[in-house]
Amino acid sequence: MMTIRRQLLLGLMGAMLLCVLGAGASLYRSLLSETNELADLQLRQLAAALPHEFAPDSGMPAAEDPEEEFVLQSWDEEGKQQSLLPGRQELPRYAVQGFSMATVDGEQWRLYGETRRGRYVQVAQRMEVRDELAASMTLRAGAPLLLFGAVLAVLIVVVVGRALRPLNRLAQAVAGRSPDALTPLATDDMPPELRPVVLALNGLMQRFEAALTAQRTFVADAAHELRSPLTALKLQLQLVERAGSEQARQVALVKMHERLDRGTHLVRQLLSLARHETPLGAAQRRPVDLGLLLEAAVADHSALADSRNIDLGIEAPTQVVIVADADGLRVLLNNLIDNALRYTQQGGRVDLQTAVENGRPLLRVRDNGPGVPAEHRARLFDRFFRPDGQQVWGCGLGLSIVRNIADHHQADIVLTEAEAETRRGLCVTVVFKP
């Protein structure tokens, strides 16, 4: 692709050249018109002069300038030709009165003829002489124009170079940045045309820095959280090796399976968190029926709910369709239901609901478990946060995944008590855009 500098230079040089050529052509046409007028006047003056004034012995000098290269002929009343300027080309008699054009031997001639004192006088001049004269005058008059054009070309190169210098500085400033140095670029010394580009680059670097920070935080948190289950798994393996009886070995193996399940759950949640940290693309959004989504979630978790004797169902089924990422909403709902089933006592109740309130679609998961104290709700969405005193094992990533998916859908999450009178249970409501 052609550079901006080359495009500007070619465009400006081409425009300047067209202007110079146009001015030269206009000057040539103007000078040619004036030359023709003056030459016609000269032909008429020559014809008006007395024929005997051009006799060979009259002492008239021969024409030397190109504009004086003409043919002067005369015929008496009997039609006998008299040569007034010997040595010049002879033309036939055209017997015209006034000006006319004629072609002789492929050359264009300008004629003027009139009858004076009983004689017919004919004066002619080649058009080529006039064209050469106009061209010569154009070159003499246009020489300063060519000089000015050359000076203008040099000025164009200098001005374009100076105008693009801020762009070169910007390119060098961006090229010299490293992934660890993402401070915003200065906009004070930038031209107004480059400030939107600099502001866009600053915004991009801020988003990139935020993504790098999130990635570093995620890696650090993941490494910290994986260290504990791996250490516990290694200790459990040592207990299996040291078991003194088959019964003790079986108990240790059961504990090791539990540790493996927790580690597998943690890794799965970490992968899900990493996958749902990236913003949604336009291709991922499509119409999603929230009612059908709830029915599928109930079918997926019915076995776990039955094993804990928990009543899992949909409250007031209705059809609500939104444009969203179906896979993301499925993960969001699965995490909310999984948390509700884990922290609700046996024989409890978990209700799912979808509706439209105040013109905004929503998903709601309500349980009658112990709930979460109000002072801990603000931190529930932090990674790896779990309130003190929890007996149910978990990794503290479920609600972080829920928050990321809700943020990508520009949805709000509201936490309240499921039962306001007893202040028990937890109600999680995800409210989408209208």
Approximate shape: rod-shaped
- CATH architecture call of the largest domain: 2-Layer Sandwich
**What is the count of DSSP helices, taking H or I runs of 4+ residues?**
9
Indicate the percent of residues in helices. Answer: 40-55%
Low-confidence stretches: 54-67
Helix-strand topology string: HEEEEEHHHHEHEEHEEHHEE
SSE blueprint and pairings:
Elements lengths: L3 H45 L22 E5 L5 E3 L14 E7 L2 E10 L2 E8 H37 L1 H11 L19 H48 L3 H30 L10 E4 H18 L3 E4 L6 E4 L1 H18 L5 E9 L2 E8 L6 H4 L20 H11 L3 E5 L9 E6 L3
Parallel strand pairs: 7-9
Antiparallel strand pairs: 1-2, 1-5, 3-4, 4-5, 6-8, 9-10, 10-12, 11-12
Question: What does it look like?
Answer:
It is a single chain. With 434 residues, this protein is of the alpha+beta class. It has three domains: 4-160, Beta-Lactamase (2-Layer Sandwich), CATH 3.30.450; 195-275, Orthogonal Bundle (Helix Hairpins), CATH 1.10.287; 282-431, Heat Shock Protein 90 (2-Layer Sandwich). It has nine helices and twelve strands. A five-stranded antiparallel β-sheet has the order 2-1-5-4-3. The two termini are 45 Å apart. The model is unreliable at 54-67 (pLDDT under 50).
Structure summary:
By secondary structure, the protein is α+β, with helices and mostly antiparallel strands. The protein has nine helices and twelve strands. The protein is rod-shaped, with a radius of gyration of 50 Å.
Main attributes?
single chain, 434 residues, alpha+beta, Beta-Lactamase, Helix Hairpins, Heat Shock Protein 90, 3 domains, 5-stranded antiparallel sheet, 5-stranded mixed sheet, 9 helices, 12 strands, rod-shaped
